[in-house]
Amino acid sequence: MAMTSPFRGRLPGGWPEDAPPRSILASLAPYGCSGEDRESLGSYLNRLCDAHDMTRWSLTNTIVGPAAEELLHVSGARMSRDIGRAAYNLNVSSLTEQANHWAQTLNYLTHRNNLQLCTLLPLKSLVSEFVLLSEKERFCPGCHEDDARLDRDCYERLLWSIDAAKACPLHQLQLVSRPQAKRRRTSKRENGSLSHQAAAQYKIGDAPVHIPASDFEVETSRLIAELLDDAVYFSNAGYSATAQSVFLTHAINLLFDGRSARFAAHLGISKSQVHGWVKGSVQMSFPRLVQTAYCCGCAIADILLGNSVMLSLRPAPSEQRRRLIQRGGTGARRPKEDLRAELDALIRSGRAINATEAARAVGISLKYLKKNFPEQQEFLVRHGRELSESLRREATETFNNMYLSEHNALRAAGVYPSRRRVVARLRGKIGLGARQRVQEAYLGAFAVTGVKIAGSSRGRMTARLDLGREGRGV
User: Fold this and answer.
1) How far is it, in rounded angstroms, from Cα 309 to Cα 192?
2) According to the model, what pLDDT value does residue 228 have?
3) 283, 273, 296: which is closest to 241 by C-alpha?
4) Can you spell out the DSSP letters for 387-441?
5) Per DSSP, what are the bridge partners of residue 203?
């Protein structure tokens, strides 16, 4: 796709030929100067949209997408789709190739050269992606209050996108999950600055969100913020299994008298896991990097670079999870006869309506259930499917009856029962579901009552009644 104006625009008349090039988008400076308060790229994109009074989709579809297609030969349509997703802020600021495309394109459009620092790209070749990014958007209420007090736009910190960062190192408060509520994007001209809009959202329900963080949460978040600063200088070094082994060997010899089993017990993990780290056959996950740096009293960069620095032993926190992902139940250790008897009892009592609930109740996996108890598994799957279909039919029948009731109520009032009017009366009374569900109820109501669809020909709408705003329910 050929790039057109303003991407190839000339200088205005009268400007000197040696004038510096003009940026296509406003060259906003990212907020923050360190890993503790550095702005994320998703937040920077939001401020660009506000500066140009455009929605994210409009800016991406008309400017960012076409520029990326010409510069990087990537799909601008995909960027437009990605920006409409709920987790766009985390995705744009991550360490994926898509985040790299966003950083390079926005660098070109704003004539900046440092927007990749607003992402986790400097960590890409250094740390494992396993359990790195947070699944939810979080914020520090103290930071947002500072934004409001300083009368600047409320912005998201890059540190908040890392799952292992549980607190704000500046205010020593726990990070709070942002409520998942869809809101229409408003401009500054409508509701004032974004900082004042966000300043009013410090409570979820009636519970205060200013929760003091523990020393462990504050210190580990500070270590992660330091890594965001340090990684800028050695990001090209990449992960080194040798450097990891050198540091761990140094730590075990200095703090645990050369006994790796004591090191594993101190961290609360298995000896085999530590063995894999020391031998360099297993890369340490990011949460374990943070935990090890905290317990050894060093920086995360020391582990990645294999530095033999002075260490000081600190006890591991009691709230640290032994496993980073939840493991299945322990029912497989029990005798199979006991498990079979319990499964049969669950089936007879009707307490297990499908295979998933039955497996969870006895503490086994679905794979174990299918392999060792095929008869029970087959019955539970069939029963669960039949129950789901029955509930689906019942819900559809209930919806159709309610739609027909509202349809007849409009007819009795002398109002044509259009789909829009009926749906407006149903809102808040029952979930509407997919559009196909509403369409089937709509056609079924006209078939039952014998009323002809307005303007229809062979069952299709060919014209629309000329209704005013009041008639349309606007």
Assistant:
1) 51
2) 94
3) 283
4) HHHHHHHHHHHHHHHHHHHHHHHHHHTT----HHHHHHHHTTTS----HHHHHHH
5) 208
Angle, helices 97-110 vs 76-83, to 10°: value is 100
User: For residue 447, is it left (φ>0), alpha (ψ between -120 and 50) or beta?
Assistant: alpha
Q: Is the pLDDT of residue 426 over 80?
A: yes
DSSP-assigned states of every residue in 60-111: IIIIIHHHHHHHH---HHHHHHHHTSTTHHHHHTSSSHHHHHHHHHHHHHHT
The reported pLDDT for the residue numbered 474 is 37
The alpha carbon torsion through 454, 456, 460, 466 (nearest 10 deg) reads -50
pTM, rounded to two decimals: 0.65
What is the DSSP code (8-state) at residue 34? S
- Per-residue pLDDT of 183-216, as tens digits, reads 444 444 444 444 444 444 443 343 347 889 999 9
Please give the structure tokens belonging to residue 273: 């896991």
Query: How confident is the prediction for the chain on average, in pLDDT?
Result: 82
User: What pLDDT sits at residue 236?
Assistant: 79
3-state SS record for 117-157: HHCCHHHCCCCCCCCCECCCCEECHHHHHHHHHCCCCCCCE
- The CA distances from residue 378 to 91, 370, 383, 384, 385, in Å, are 40, 8, 8, 10, 11
Angle (nearest 5°) at CA 134 between 128 and 136: 160
The residue among 60 and 12 whose pLDDT is bigger is 60
- CA neighbor of 419 nearest in space, from 468, 462, 473, 466: 473
- Percentage of residues of the chain with pLDDT beyond 70: 83
Place of tokens 């369409």: 439
Q: Residues with Cβ < 8 Å from 322, sequence gap 6 or more? A: 268, 269
Q: Quote the pLDDT of residue 461.
A: 37
Instruction: Tell me the pLDDT band of 363, cut-offs 50, 70 and 90.
Output: confident
Q: What are phi and psi of 168, to 5 degrees?
A: -95, 120
User: Mean pLDDT over residues 274-293, rounded?
Assistant: 93
Q: How many angstroms separate the CA atoms of 344 and 121, rounded?
A: 53
How do beta strands 456-457 and 460-461 pair?
A: antiparallel
